[in-house]
Structures are given as structure tokens and as C-alpha cells.
Design a protein that fits this description.
The protein is of the alpha/beta class and 292 residues long. It has one domain: Ribokinase (UDP-N-acetylmuramoyl-L-alanine:D-glutamate ligase, 3-Layer(aba) Sandwich). Helix content is 31%, strand content 26%. The chain contains 9 helices and 13 strands. It has helices at residues 39-49, 65-73, 115-122, 140-149, 180-187, 194-204, 243-256, 261-275, 288-291; strands at residues 3-6, 10-16, 31-37, 54-60, 77-83, 90-97, 100-106, 130-133, 153-157, 175-179, 209-213, 219-223, 226-230. A 9-stranded mixed sheet has the order 5-4-1-8-9-10-11-12-13, sandwiched between helices. Strands 3-2-6-7 form a 4-stranded mixed sheet. Strand 12 (219-223) and strand 13 form a beta hairpin. The chain is globular, with a radius of gyration of 18 Å. The two termini are 25 Å apart. Bound molecules: alpha-D-ribofuranose (RIB). Alpha-D-ribofuranose binds at residues 8, 10, 12, 37-39, 42, 92, 103, 136, 241-242, 244-245, 281.
Length: 292
């Protein structure tokens, strides 16, 4: 069984701020960092650090070759990481403040994923293989349909959540992984309480495996009769960037390595509690050795 992560790669420009910038305000940052990120890249690194053999497909610009080297340094297969002749690598402008973040995205080459690349990549995958996707690339509806037609198991982290998600063939998805904001929108729930949001998700998506993460409120797992809560590990967050990506990558890797949902959720919670204690995106994700 192989894991294909068809996902985004972004250069993250990170500014630590005295407070989040208000409309009409100009303020100086306290610091600046340039990191390798993107929900796709972060999740491939989390999968690989957790010990899963991972294939990453996606697009970068001519300015993004560093992503190939970085993925390969963790053993991620990059056979289908392609370089665009037309676009620059995607980027993100990230403000961080007191452990929280705000993110602006520019899609760049991530928005050049189309049928031709999807067909070429999926030729190498089949029944039982896993497709992991987030919502930062183009071609999503075609990708989900095509993977489903090949009997791949589809794990969809609907981040960042937007209206387009409802135009995708969600019936093809086996597992949804969402945070409370994404979960609320996906369930069309009117509650802010994560324990209600998971109930709304269960009602709206019966038969799906559902994972809802909610920061310090912990996380919920639901699949058929199996339904439980995982506590968060109490830590002081420095930067929450990539916490959700760590959770997704670790949860999936642990499941693929034969762990029970309880074990996989506990490992994922522990891993993301370590990610938030370090600044940055992919580089803040712990290795399995660090975790253990
Ligand atoms: O989930 C964190 C990621 O979201 C960042 O690395 C940024 O690139 C955006 O995709």
C-alpha cells in the first residue's frame, strides 16, 4: 500500500507581530523568517518523519528546487514533483502573534495542477493505495473522481476551507480531517462547540471516518460505532503553524503502520503538541525518535 500526497508547496514568509495588523494600520514586525511550508509539503514531511513511505506530487516554480532536495532528504519520493515554466512557487504571508497565526496564500504553481498531470501520476497507483489531499491545489474535483474510480482510499484535509469544497465529489472521500473552523463549515453547523460540531459532521457524513482537531480542546475520532475524544497535551504554544499538518501526517502514518485509531490519535496529538513548541512549518515537525 502506497501513500500519495498530491499537495501544495509554499515558501512561507513569517512575521512575528506585536499584534495582528488591523485594517489601515502599518506596523513593524518583531522578526522575519523564510521557511519551507505549504499544507502539502508539511504533511508529506510529517508522514515521512513518522515512518510512512510517501510519494509527493505537485508543482513548484523554477525558484522552488529547494523543496525537491528537502523532501528527498526525508526519503519522500519526488518523481512527480514538477517544475512549472510559467509560474513561481506558491507562497504564504504568515503573521504570528502569541502562538496564533493568520495566513495569506498566493497559489502560484500549486494552481497549475490539471488533468494531464493527475492522469500521469495516478497511472502508478491503484486499489488500496491512499491519496492524501488538502485544499491548496487546482484540479481537486477531477483528482477525487479519478482516485475514487481507481479504488484508492481518499483522505481529505479540507484546509483551507472555502465554498469550492462543496463543489467537489465529497462522496468519494473516505476520511475527512478538519479543525473546528473547517468542521463547522463542512458540517454547516451553527455551533462553535467542537463537541457539537463533531455530532453535526457525523449526521451529515454518515459512513465516513471523521477526525476533528480543536487545539487545546483536544480531538475527536468517529468511524461507524467507534467514537471517542483524545485529550490535547498541555504545552505552551510558540507557533501553531503546521500543527494540523503534523496531526494529519502522524495520524495517517500510524494507521498505515498498523496502529489502532486510539493509538494513532494519541501519537498525532503528541506530535502536534511538539510542533507548536517550535517556530516554523515543516522544520518544527518532530521525528518519531524525538516523539518517543
Ligand atoms: O498549515 C500551515 C501551512 O498553511 C503553511 O506552511 C502555509 O504555507 C499554508 O499552506
Amino acid at each position: 500500500m502506497k501513500v500519495l500526497n498530491f499537495g501544495s508547496l509554499n515558501i512561507d514568509h513569517v512575521y512575528n507581530m506585536p499584534h495582528f495588523t488591523e485594517p489601515k494600520e502599518t506596523q513593524s514586525s518583531l522578526s522575519y523568517m523564510r521557511n519551507l511550508g505549504g499544507k502539502g509539503l508539511n504533511q508529506s514531511i510529517a508522514l515521512a518523519k513518522a515512518g510512512a513511505e510517501t510519494y509527493h506530487a505537485g508543482r513548484i516554480g523554477a525558484d522552488g528546487e529547494v523543496f525537491r532536495t528537502y523532501l528527498e532528504s526525508y526519503g519522500v519520493h519526488t518523481d512527480w514533483l514538477e517544475t512549472s515554466e510559467h509560474s513561481v512557487t506558491g507562497h504564504a504571508i504568515i503573521e504570528t502573534c502569541e502562538g496564533e497565526n493568520r495566513i495569506i496564500l498566493y497559489g502560484g504553481a500549486n494552481q497549475e495542477i490539471g488533468k494531464e498531470l493527475i492522469d500521469r501520476v495516478l497511472e502508478h497507483f491503484g486499489a488500496g493505495d491512499v491519496l492524501l489531499v488538502q485544499n491548496e491545489i487546482s484540479g481537486m474535483a477531477y483528482l477525487l473522481n479519478k482516485a475514487h474510480s481507481k479504488d484508492m482510499k481518499i483522505v481529505f484535509n479540507t484546509a483551507p476551507m472555502n465554498e469550492k469544497v462543496f463543489s467537489y465529489p465529497l462522496e468519494c472521500v473516505d476520511t475527512f480531517i478538519v479543525n473546528e473552523v473547517e468542521g463547522r463549515a463542512l458540517a454547516e453547523s451553527d455551533s462553535d462547540d467542537p463537541s457539537m460540531i463533531i455530532e453535526d459532521l457525523r449526521r451529515k457524513y454518515p459512513g465516513k471516518e471523521l477526525i476533528l482537531t480543536a487545539g487545546t480542546d483536544g480531538a475527536w475520532y468517529s468511524s461507524g460505532e467507534e467514537f471517542f475524544h483524545q485529550d490535547a497535551f498541555p504545552v505552551i504554544a510558540v507557533d501553531t503553524t503546521a500543527a494540523g499538518d503534523t496531526f494529519t501526517g502522524y495520524f495517517l502514518a500510524m494507521k498505515l503502520l498498523g496502529k489502532t485509531p486510539q493509538e494513532a490519535m494519541a501519537m498525532a496529538a503528541r506530535a502536534s503538541s511538539m510542533t507548536v513548541q517550535k517556530a516554523g512549518a515543516a522544520q518544527s515537525i518532530p521525528s518519531l525518535e524525538e516523539l518517543l
